[in-house]
Every structure is written in structure tokens, then in C-alpha cells.
Design brief:
By secondary structure, the protein is mainly α. It has a domain at 60-193: Tetracycline Repressor, domain 2 (Orthogonal Bundle), CATH 1.10.357.10. It contains nine helices and no strands. The protein has helices at residues 9-27, 30-37, 41-48, 51-74, 80-91, 104-111, 116-142, 152-169, 176-193. α7 crosses α8 (152-169). The termini are far apart.
Length: 197
């Protein structure tokens, strides 16, 4: 029997997430990962296979955490449409965050054009968020908060594209005004689709 693991896998993944956010996949070396996570090379290989395996596990963990947080807000009690507005208003914070505080999903879209497995993980995250938006908009329509002709499917696609587009822009210093304007326009679009809009 092999020796049991002597490290917290969740903590290792969180530290790896931070490093991949800072340096990207290509810019992160195995020695970087060993130094940041505090595990030895053999433990990395035993637990994750290799650097790419650790990256895929970190990408999945990031996506689950980030999408779950948004879905939790969307599914909170009260008005579905107001919950949606709360999520959108939260995107305005991207305008004031350090450019280093970007999104691993966005980085994954940019970096992994030739990695079908990584792109498939990113696509799962994007699809989950879009489904969360759509369900919230459908609940809003059932509650009489949305106009009958408003399309939850189309609105959820716009919301998803904007979310990740803003994540990409947040990597550029000086994009605060663009992000703020985009959030305002998106809130206006939701107001137009509202039953009292």
C-alpha cells in the first residue's frame, strides 16, 4: 500500500489557482507549483498526474466555486429579477479591482485554444452560468416580473457574454469606465424587459 497523502488537496488547489491566475498556465513551472503549494514533486504526480492535471483540477475548482456563488445569489429568496440585478451590479466591482484579480475561466478561454479538455471544462462553467441566468429569468416571468415577450434564453446569453467579456476587460488597466457603462446598459436592458418597464 502507498503512503497516505499528507497534504490538504483543497488547499493545494486553492494555492495552484492563485498561481495560475498570476502567471497563466504557460508561465507557471512545476518548480513554481511545488514552491507555492508546498508539496513535493512525487506528491504532485501521484495526486494530479502532472502540471496539466493540476491545472485542470484547479480550473474545475475555480469554476465550481465562482459559478456556485453566482447561482446562490440568483436563487436567494425574494424577487428573482432583483437577485439578477444584484449579480449584475456586482460586476461593477471589476472596474476597481487590481488587474491581477482576473478570472481563471477567462484566462482559460484565452490560453487554451488548442486544449480541448481545458476548453470543455471552461464551456461547462459557461453553460452552468447561462443555465442559472435562464432559470432565474424564467422564475421572474412566472412571478409576473418579466414581460411575456421577453426571452429568458436570449437574455441569459447576453448576460453570460457580458459577464465573461467584462472579465476579459478587467485585465486591462483603465477599463473602469467601459465596465461601468456596460453594467449600466445591462441594468437598463433588464429594466426594459421587466413587466413594469
Amino acid at each position: 500500500m502507498g503512503r497516505p497523502r499528507t497534504f490538504d488537496q483543497a488547499e493545494v488547489l486553492e494555492r495552484a489557482v492563485g498561481l495560475f491566475l498570476e502567471k497563466g498556465y504557460e508561465g507557471t513551472s512545476v518548480p513554481d507549483l511545488l514552491d507555492r503549494t508546498g508539496i513535493c514533486r512525487q506528491s504532485l504526480y501521484n495526486a494530479f498526474g502532472d502540471k496539466r492535471g493540476l491545472y485542470l483540477a484547479a480550473l474545475e475548482r475555480w469554476g465550481r466555486r465562482e459559478v456556485d456563488a453566482k447561482i446562490q445569489l440568483l436563487e436567494a429568496s425574494g424577487s428573482p429579477l432583483e437577485n439578477l440585478r444584484t449579480v449584475i451590479r456586482g460586476w461593477a466591482a471589476l472596474a476597481t479591482q487590481c488587474p491581477g484579480d482576473h478570472c481563471l475561466t477567462v484566462v482559460g478561454i484565452v490560453e487554451n485554444r488548442d486544449d480541448p479538455e481545458a476548453l470543455a471544462e471552461v464551456e461547462r462553467q459557461v453553460d452552468r452560468l447561462e443555465a442559472g441566468f435562464r432559470k432565474t429569468l424564467e422564475r421572474a416571468r412566472q412571478a409576473g416580473e418579466l414581460q411575456p415577450n421577453a426571452s429568458p434564453a436570449r437574455l441569459s446569453r447576453i448576460l453570460t457574454a457580458t459577464c465573461y467579456g467584462l472579465g476579459l476587460l478587467s485585465r486591462l488597466p483603465g477599463s473602469g469606465a467601459r465596465i461601468g457603462d456596460a453594467v449600466s446598459v445591462l441594468l437598463g436592458l433588464i429594466d426594459q424587459a421587466a413587466a413594469d418597464g
